[in-house]
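Notebook p. 47: complex prediction with S-adenosylmethionine.
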Amino acid sequence: MSEPLPWTDENRMLAERTRDDWDGAAQAWSHWEPHIAAFLWPVTQRLLEAAEIQPGQYVLDAGCGMGDPALAVAMRVGPGGRVLAIDPAQRMIDTARRRAGAMDLDNVEFRAAWVDDLPPPAKPFDAVVGRFSFIFCPDVRAALRRVRGMMRPGARLAMSAWTPMENSPGFLVINEMLRKHVVMPAVDATQPGMHHLSGPGMLSAALSEAGFRDVRTSPVRIYQFARNGAEFWRMSFEMSASLKKVLLRLPEAARTAIGEEIARRVDGDERFHQDGVLRIPVLAQVGSGCA
Ligand SMILES: C[S@@+](CC[C@H](N)C(=O)[O-])C[C@H]1O[C@@H](n2cnc3c(N)ncnc32)[C@H](O)[C@@H]1O
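Predicted complex, structure tokens below:
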């Protein structure tokens, strides 16, 4: 078993800032729960397949937010299995506990913790999953390496990341519009954050460099559901910790104008309209490896 990572001051500060951002987004995530569930369920499905989750297993969900994919994993491992679901954002964990309670799931333990310095478990994990969470670790390779040391040999870890923004027209519209009005750092797939590891080959490289074998990646085509452009914008803005931070620095009138422009662009884009609702394509990816 590996020892806890010594945090550098810089990484500790980054991790604390990230935790506070997600804590601040927890209420919005609860509000948008049905939309998030509709948006991300195929990623959950792929994670469970890629991590080869089976009944009876002991599984870690690293960065579970308000409970995903921990709840799906808890159902799959069944009463003979167990899930440890961790996230540094306490308010996300509080929601996750309430959701598990509402589903009568008692085989999942939620804990406020970073994956980066998680103490080794009493028994090794049979599988590890992380849905858009490892990408926020200050040092993703170190975190993955450490978790690999807590897994039974042959166990699989599966994690998701986004792909280059060009594959996701909704993300692109928001990014283009924001760039017109706000000075923003360039999207950098090498840095912790939403787009971390989104560049070609980056996810598999990170897993291999962390010591995982038999590394596989696959694209997952999903769509963001919204009733109209205004709803799409409201959801995107409220759910994204980083977007919120940039926009809250602007006067309210400017923010409203940007939101209205994005909503108009989305409403006017025929590609997104189906059955009287919007289905805006996004391309995610799932990578997995064997400990
Ligand atoms: C985009 S949300 C995804 C949440 C959830 N997995 C889902 O898919 O709905 C990212 C989550 O990663 C968590 N996170 C950020 N840094 C982390 C770290 N170092 N260790 C564990 N979780 C972290 C955040 O607190 C946040 O809840």
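Notes: The mean pLDDT is 95. The radius of gyration is 19 Å.
Next step: compare against the earlier run before touching the bench.
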